[in-house]
UniProtKB/TrEMBL annotation:
Binds 1 zinc ion per subunit. It comes from the Bacteria. GO terms for molecular function: GTP binding; GTPase activity; metal ion binding; rRNA binding. It comes from Agathobaculum butyriciproducens. It is found in: Cytoplasm. This is Small ribosomal subunit biogenesis GTPase RsgA. The gene is rsgA. Residues 73-217 form the EngC GTPase domain.
Length: 299
């Protein structure tokens, strides 16, 4: 029995990274009644067919978490890449991505890129106080890249960022084999590079994987639909000390009298932009009912 992690799935074939290398596998129908179809990021065991060296998936470990689109399981870390240099990142995008990560039990990390042009002091201060980790980097000068490399080592990470923020530049700085690795996997599969709509895990130097995600838009939309309004407050770590301190039980922390969260925003303990993002997200999910979530499947 060989253990591994699914890096890519195409047309019923799964490409599993194992101690013996990358193994092409098929899955039997047996998973349909339990976890469903195998997805990228799944931890699996497999058996090798002596005839041709291909594998058969035997078991899929219970998922720590999963996203729907892109379909990926067991993410340890979501990195929201932002920039205070043009194109300046809307903090709402960062807050949406980090809220999803926190809600799904993944670590969240905000990375402010292009510090050679603008150090992003305001953004940095906002997240430093939020309870969400924040790092400053420059893909051009290499500042902060070692620290970021430390944070992703040995883990499965997804990078999200608005177009032009420098996500590709940061990834290439992080791992010189990043670009080459994409080609290597695609060649083995023999389908060239026309597979970008599928999410794929790229092994990185020193252990760990990076999931390529197409950008903020595809990352957030469908996931956010699955957060209940009353759970949203827990996706903002800095709200935690105030939850339960409001005058009314079930306070939404939007504009209620005697709200402890609003008081903390007023006296500067919670950043205004963070609360604005919370309110915007709250409005978008407040009519969602519990039964709609279970219909959606994963939470
Ligand atoms: N000054 C400066 N420019 C940077 C830095 N990182 C990236 N850029 C520039 O920003 C532009 C966009 O960089 P990309 O790496 O292509 O950005 P991306 O986020 O991958 O963009 P998409 O492919 O649209 O998702 C390029 O012109 C880069 O040279 C940085 O640290 N400092
Ligand atoms: Zn409140």
């Amino acid at each position: 029995m060989i253990e591994g992690i699914i890096l890519k799935g195409i047309g019923g074939f799964y490409y599993v990274d194992t101690a013996e290398g990358l193994i092409e596998c098929k899955a039997r129908g047996r998973f349909r009644k339990t976890v469903g179809k195998p997805i990228v990021g799944d931890r699996v065991t497999l058996e090798i067919q002596p005839e041709d060296g291909t594998g058969y998936l035997q078991t899929i470990a219970p998922r720590k978490n999963s996203l729907i689109r892109p379909a990926v399981a067991n993410l340890d870390l979501v990195v929201a890449v932002a920039s205070a240099a043009p194109p300046v990142t809307d903090p709402f995008l960062i807050d949406k991505v980090t809220a999803i990560a926190v809600h799904k039990n993944m670590d969240a990390l905000v990375v402010i890129n292009k510090t050679d042009v603008n150090p992003g002091d305001e953004l940095y201060e906002t997240y430093r106080r939020s309870g969400i980790e924040v790092l400053r980097v420059s893909a051009h000068t290499g500042e902060g890249i070692d620290a970021l490399r430390e944070r992703i080592r040995g883990r499965v990470s997804a990078f999200a960022g608005n177009s032009g923020v420098g996500k590709s530049s940061v990834l290439n700085r992080l791992d010189s084999s990043f670009g080459a690795e994409v080609g290597a996997i695609s060649d083995k599969i023999g389908r060239g590079k026309h597979t970008t709509r599928h999410v794929e895990l790229h092994p990185i130097e020193g252990g760990g994987y990076i999931a390529d995600t197409p950008g903020f838009s595809s990352f957030e939309t469908e996931q956010m639909d699955l957060v209940l309004a009353e759970d949203l407050q827990y996706a903002f770590p800095e709200f935690e000390p105030y939850i339960g301190q409001c005058k009314f039980t079930g306070c939404a922390h939007v504009k209620e009298k005697g709200c402890a969260v609003l008081a903390a925003v007023e006296n500067g303990e919670i950043a205004k932009t963070r609360h604005e993002s919370y309110v915007k997200l709250y409005e978008s999910v407040k009519d969602l009912k519990e039964w709609e979530l279970t219909k959606g499947g994963t939470r």
